[in-house]
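Moderator note: this is an archived Q&A kept for reference. The question asked for a predicted structure of one protein chain; the sequence and the answer are reproduced below.
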Amino acid sequence: MNFQKLLLQSLTWRGVYFISMLLVNVFLSRYLQAASTGIVYYISNIFSFSLIIVGLSFESGVTFYASGALIQKNKLIWFVVLWSFVLVALVLAAIALYFHFSSGAHEVLDNRYYYFGVTYIAGLFLTNCAAALFYTQNNFLLPNALLAAWNILLIIFIPKHPAASIEEATPILDAYFLVFILQGISICVAYLFSDKATRQFALPVKAELKDLFRFSSLAMAANIVFFLVYRVDYLFVNASPVCTAADLGNYIQVSKLGQLLLIIPQIIASVIFPRTASGIERKELNNTLMIMARLFLQLYVVVLIVVIFAGQYVFTLLFGETFNAMKLPFIILIPGIFSLSVLTLLAAYFSGKGKVIVNVTGTGIALVVVIIGDYLFVPRYGIVAAAAVSTVGYTVNLLYILYVFYKDYSINLYDFFHWRKEDYTWIKNLLLKGK
């Protein structure tokens, strides 16, 4: 399948899934309101960071070795299934250790931490790894249709009226976290039954395991640093004396909208990574990177204009009246989201080339900038400062990656930003070839 047709299929079916995620976010946020939404997403953020560590970013190793046919795919899927049990044991032990030294983050939710942790972390691990295997087979329909279907079922059960308290919301929260493990199990089962050969039980041999752990460990280092660059500001906002629980909810919602704007780059990256790892179509990949960077720049100019003139109305309409402090932080964050969009593509490119160290170095530099900036300014200026510091950090990261890309491949960096009429022809051809 040619690259453009593959890219369009990825955009279509992963787009369906991400739209369902947006709807879950909207319905859940309106139900919980800003303060409770902040609590739930803050907890989820901690679990997401934990997943990077206990999951060892195996989805990156699985993608790399499956794309290059370096490890048989049935070995990889069965390894993922077995590691999920190891992961559950690690999560339970970590939560028990946490409660041994702490009373918890929120009294009402403390007794559900074990349930939330296992369902969320194990579910996402299985989903990420099994979806990665599907993508290496150019199958974007089945995994994303399954994920979207579970999200739609969840939306049906979310009440329309806002919850009076976090206590009242606990049954819906139980369902919200349950969906993650159901998604993970269903997508793994679907992969095992997608090909008779994958059902044959086998595990990587010692040499293969060594390679898998080595590559995934490097990816984990990159993901840890990147995660901190992108979300360490939550900790500073949560601890800031000038920020309320509602401010935290508003800021996390701004961040989640930023993540939604990264959907298209992430979808494209899911095609670029295995394609780069397989070593084919390098010239077309390089050209696509530059075209997408130019298109993203135009897209975010439009988004910026819309938010300036209609942001307050749109945000409160979607999420409810308690989300009334999103506009200014989001405006400030938009240039940073553009930087992240281009970074997502370049990071997938370098990962597919086996040069994960480039991503680690760039995000490491950005992390220093973000931590220093958040420490100095967030305690005094709150969520506005958090957004500004993040934008600076993301931009510094992009500049470093572009420098390495230019040095290694002699690409004219001006081509990443100079708008061209031919880009619209490229989109037209993409749509035509995808039919």
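Archived answer notes: The chain has one domain: 3-434.
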